[in-house]
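Field reference: sequence -> structure
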Amino acid sequence: MAKVKVQVFLKPGVLDVQGKAVEGALKGLGWTGVSEARVGKLIEFDLDGVDDPAAEAKKMCETLLANTVIESYRIEIA
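Structure field:
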């Protein structure tokens, strides 16, 4: 069984509305040095019964987990 972690994040140049909101909130709370905040998502799951977990995770990202038009992803297999 493989432990899979997929990190999904917006591609450079895509406006990150959540990141801007987090940045503004942190600045409002006194952390004035915060800039360029970006928000992503982490998806973790166990994967069993496949010969190549990385290839299967890539198919999952391309099909469902990431919107590849505006998002990139990174896969980690443990």
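Note: Strands lie at 2-10, 41-47, 71-77.
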